[in-house]
What we know:
single chain, 191 residues, alpha/beta, 4-stranded parallel β-sheet, disordered C terminus
Amino acid sequence: xxxxxxxxxxxxQFNIDGIIITPTSENAEYNGAFLKELHEKGLxxxxxxxxxxxxxxxxxxxxxxxxAFSAVDTLVNNGHRKIAIIGGPITSKPGxxxxxxxxxxxxxxxxxxxxxxxxxxxxxxxxxxxxxxRLLKDHHEVTAIFSANNLMSIxxxxxxxxxxxxxxxxxxxxxxxxxxxxxxxxxxxxx
Length: 191
């Protein structure tokens, strides 16, 4: 968040004509005042994927809930009942929507939501890697993983590979977001 504010301040000094931004948080406490000030000065601002409440900015948003619901539902429909999530921060709308969708799918199929299968990352590869390593170490019974974004998926896939597991033979995996041109069968380092 602090880095984002520094960058916005720098952009303002360059007298830019507008900003298209995916805020690091929807929490108006850190960025809302700054974005509101820029907006009130007439600078056009469009937010992507995360809204900053109370400012009235224009935005473009994806339906994270439905896409995540469909992904997890696919795992259940393929026979999986012990499904983990490598989720994003629930302080962001996408992170919250994707985690809620995961839980709603399980509940809709009368599958117990095991909190120990719910991991919260930061939408970065490093957290996907670390959380998946911990999951695989502590929960051998998990048969499938839903990763809540493509960057965390890269880290998750690296951890799965290092654990000597094969997809889909040993564990199922589905990601929110595209992993192209990534090839899960490639040799060498995934990252």
